[in-house]
Structure formats: C-alpha cells, structure tokens
Design goal:
By secondary structure, this protein is an alpha/beta fold. It contains nine helices and nine strands. It has helices at residues 14-24, 46-56, 73-85, 106-117, 167-171, 188-198, 222-242, 247-270, 275-295; strands at 3-10, 32-39, 63-67, 92-95, 100-102, 121-130, 152-154, 163-166, 203-215. Strands 1, 2, 3, 4, 5, 6, 7, 8 and 9 form a nine-stranded mixed sheet that branches. It is globular, with a radius of gyration of 20 Å. It starts with a strand and ends in a 14-residue tail after the last helix.
C-alpha cells in the first residue's frame, strides 16, 4: 500500500480549495493518503482555517496545513516539499493546484502508470471546465484547452499541476526545489523539471490519471490569452538564461525571436479574414515579445493577479 502525500498550494481561493478537498474525500484508492495544504496568504489564511474546520468535522484523510509567509508559488511549493519529506513514511507526493480536482480513479491510475514505467515524476491529463467557454480561436492558446497525452514515458512534462513525484526524485535535488526567482512570474515548474532531468530523472504521462481545472470567465478573453502567451515566453526565456547559455545559443534564440516578431504581424495581415488563425498569429507575436523582454532583463509577474475564488 503506497503512502502518498497530496500537496496543495493555495492562495485566496477558499471555494476552489473546498471543491478540491471534497473531491479528494471521494477518490477510490488503495493508497494510504495524507493531505497537506500550504496557504500562501499569511494575512487572511483562509485556506489554513478551512483545513482546520474540515478536520474538525471528521475528514476522510489526515489533513495538515501550514502557512507560508513568503509570497509566491515557488515558496508555497517549497514549503509543501519540505513538510512532505519530513514524514519518513511518504513514498510519493501528488501535487494538485487549488483550482483543480481529481476524478475518483485519479490516484490509482497515476500509481499504476508509475509501477509500469518506473518513472520518477508523472503527470496526469487535465480537463478544462469553463465558466464561459471561449471560441475555436482559443485552441492553440496555453491555459485554454485540455492538456492530454498518451500514457507512457515522455521526454518532458507540462507544468506542476496534477503530478505524482517519487520521494527519491525530491531527495536528489538540492534545496530550494523550486527557484524563488520565479515566484510571481511562473517558470518554476519548467526549471524544476529541467533540473530533475539533468539529475537523471525519468518522466511519464498518465492519461487515465485525470483531474479537472476550473477556468473562470476572466481567463477566457483574447486579452488574457495574449497576456498568458507573453508570460510564458517571458518565463521560458528567463529559465533559458538562468543556465548562462553561451553566445552562440543566445544568438540562435535572438534570431528566432526576431523572426517571430517580424513574421507574426505579416501573418496577421495575411490571415485577416480567418479569426482563428489571426488570433494564433497574435499569440506567436506576444510570446516572442515576452521572450524579448526577458532578454533585456524584464520579468513579467503573471501571478500577482488571482483569478477565481
């Protein structure tokens, strides 16, 4: 029987956290589960208080909560990892964000794929539940369509939502596990995966390890999609620059960015009568602009704004 700590970072989303805790109470699993919540709001600590109330009402699983005063998703994730590793019985840490919730068979599907592949880190597919579904133009935009992949080994993962991490994978990395330099701008998950891969970790995907994520209406507009594209371009480039690439690597990235900045406006004009393809040209332009901003030393802090509750 596997010992699994379900680790949840939360910030100002008590309703989302309650939905997630309710879903965790209904999962069908043979594992021994502990729920661990890190509240990143030291002022109101609504998530911390909610966990206390849930525990007092007789929650299905043992549930612990901590307050992480240092602002940022990296700090919250680091607090979770440290607390999870403090339990010598923990074999796996499963990470879910506070706007996600799992299907009943989620955890056993992840554990089954881990046993099959021997992977150190697995990601499960994520289905998007929209408050107001966007049009077809949104399909290529990050954060606006389901994240799915065939089950089995993969070269790289796509974010820190819906993860199963073996204890050994966390123990092989030096602290901090998630770089605080990416606290509000994102990219801490990509950096985490790159460091794990360099340390020899193996990755896999479980399409059956399904979780859902709630997408509020504020995250379904074209303006949000473009801001998200800019943010991802910015954080991806900052992660790239962290490892001090040589002049040749920097030059290749600069040429790619220049090409995108020059060609995307042209594509926008050419595709003027196709709304969907025109939006994709804008997405490419904003992503390149985010990369260029990082090259000149500017960081975009996407997570300074909270969507949903």
């Amino acid at each position: 029987m596997a010992e699994v700590t379900v680790a949840i970072p939360t910030f100002c989303r008590p309703r989302g956290l309650q939905r997630l805790l309710d879903a965790l109470a209904k999962i069908e699993t043979r594992a021994k589960v502990t729920v661990l919540v890190a509240d990143n709001d030291a002022a109101k600590h609504e998530g911390f208080d909610l966990c206390g109330n849930v525990r007092a009402r007789g929650y299905r699983w043992p549930i612990r909560a901590l307050i992480v005063a240092e602002r940022g998703i990296a700090a919250a994730r680091n607090g979770l990892v440290a607390a999870a590793l403090s339990d010598p019985r923990m074999e796996f840490t499963a990470m879910l964000d506070d706007d996600e919730w799992p299907e009943p068979g989620w955890l056993d599907a992840l554990l089954a794929e881990q046993a099959k592949t021997g992977a150190d880190v697995l990601q499960g597919s994520i289905l998007f539940d929209f408050e107001a579904k966007p049009g077809a133009w949104a399909v290529p935009f990050d954060g606006m369509s389901d994240i799915r992949h065939a089950s089995g080994p993969v070269d790289m993962l796509q974010g820190a939502g819906n993860l199963l991490i073996a204890r050994g994978a966390l123990e092989r990395l030096a602290q901090p596990w998630f770089d605080p330099a990416f606290a509000l701008g994102g990219g801490e998950d990509r950096d985490f995966f790159l460091r794990l891969k360099a340390a020899g970790a193996r990755f896999a995907w479980s399409d059956e390890g399904l979780a859902h994520t709630f997408v509020p209406a504020t995250r379904t507009s074209l303006s949000w999609g473009l801001a998200r594209a800019y943010s991802i371009g910015n954080s991806d480039m900052l992660v790239f620059l962290k490892y001090a690439p040589d002049a040749a690597a920097r030059a290749r990235e600069a040429l790619r960015i220049a090409g995108a900045l020059l060609l995307s406006p042209l594509l926008f004009v050419i595709l003027a009568f196709s709304a969907n393809r025109r939006a994709d040209a804008l997405r490419r332009l904003f992503r390149a602009a985010g990369k260029f901003a990082a090259l000149i030393g500017r960081q975009y802090n996407e997570y300074s704004v909270i969507h949903g509750d």
